[in-house]
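Supplementary notes (optional reading)

For those who missed the lab, this is the record we used. Protein: Uroporphyrinogen-III synthase. Length: 274 residues.
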Amino acid sequence: MQPTKADLPNLQGQCVLVTRPAHQAAQQISLLGECGAVAVHLPALEICPITEADPGYALLRNQMMNLDQYAIIVCISPNAAHLALDWIDQFWPQVPDGIQWYAIGQKTAHILNQQDIPACHSTSGFNSEAMLTLPDLHDVKGKKILILRGSSGRNTLAETLSERGADVEYATLYERKCPEYDDILIKSTIYNSALSSILITSGEALRNFVTVAAGGQKQFSSDSLHQLNLVVPSERIADQARYLGFTRIKVAQGPDDLSMVAALNSAHDSETNA
């Protein structure tokens, strides 16, 4: 069962680092404020939409102009959903009929549904594995499938659908980049803010955060960060965090803002576990 606002903890006096991209952090920061926490924001991902200057622009434009050639379209993320809708507005007076739309995660599905695109999503999880359990994605032999995503990511979905006989293509709508920060900002934000917890919503954001936290010349020791509460959305990312040295890891019920904040320890629990 997904958490509700009634499940939000008392975070009075805590300082929580938010690492969502700049355009996606507002709700998480607001929820933390409602819980009494101070939110510190340092994005660990930069989302850069594909432009005409990018090598993949011509292919993407061709794919979006020919959406009606695909039997199934899978949208990987809210970013992909928003950008895909922008492209559809350019070339299609209405979304072409006959396409089965899927989304990874309820939030992504909701973005598409609001624009009258009936996208299905798995209720059992927020990842490729959960998506692949949907019955209609088992019998895909000979079907042409387009996966809307960013420039990098896991290949599990495409590989499995290809093994099931589908003709799979990626439509790369944006690039995910590791932000660059001034060392003074890194020190003041990460090491001088008396952080109690860190919220990380993807494996790529986790790797980027570790890179950023080391500083431009890798002069900062991240040992102190390994003792902070780290909230992640899946066991897979928790395993990555353990490998990187983090020791106080909590797995949220999902990557959505409410689940991530609800997974934080309350002020009392944090004091008890310190």
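If you only remember one thing from this example: The beta strands are 15-18, 38-41, 46-49, 72-75, 100-103, 144-150, 167-177, 197-199, 229-232, 248-251.
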